[in-house]
Write a structure and sequence with these properties.
33% strand; disordered C terminus; alpha+beta; globular; 6 strands
Length: 112
């Protein structure tokens, strides 16, 4: 899951929110701000959701800053965390069937 680009491991960022509107605003801000890709979206518990992004460390840091700002405008931020060099085992925890299900649920032309 952690791909290598020019010999560097890609960083992972997590953004956890309360409510789908806040999460959607956060994801949109992150995608528009930096060169990152959304690798997972999942429900943590009732009302709490998390999105995971991946990219170069500086891009992930910039994206999470924009995402947290957007989430605070539209809802409640529960947590934001950067993993600069995640181990393969840690990164594989994000590779779940549920994240695939979310991608398949998107209407044609809106997914990555």
């Amino acid at each position: 899951m952690t791909e290598m680009t020019s010999g560097k491991t890609l960083a992972i960022g997590l953004l956890e929110t309360r409510g789908i509107v806040a999460l959607t605003a956060g994801i949109e801000a992150m995608m528009k701000t930096a060169d990152v890709r959304c690798i997972a979206v999942d429900r943590v518990s009732s009302g709490y959701l998390v999105a995971a992004i991946q990219g170069q460390l500086a891009a992930v840091r910039q994206a999470l800053e924009a995402g947290t700002s957007a989430v605070k405008r539209y809802g409640e931020l529960r947590a934001a965390q950067i993993y600069p060099r995640p181990s393969n085992e840690s990164a594989q925890l994000l590779d779940t069937r549920r994240s695939t299900t979310f991608r398949e649920a998107l209407p044609a032309g809106t997914g990555q």
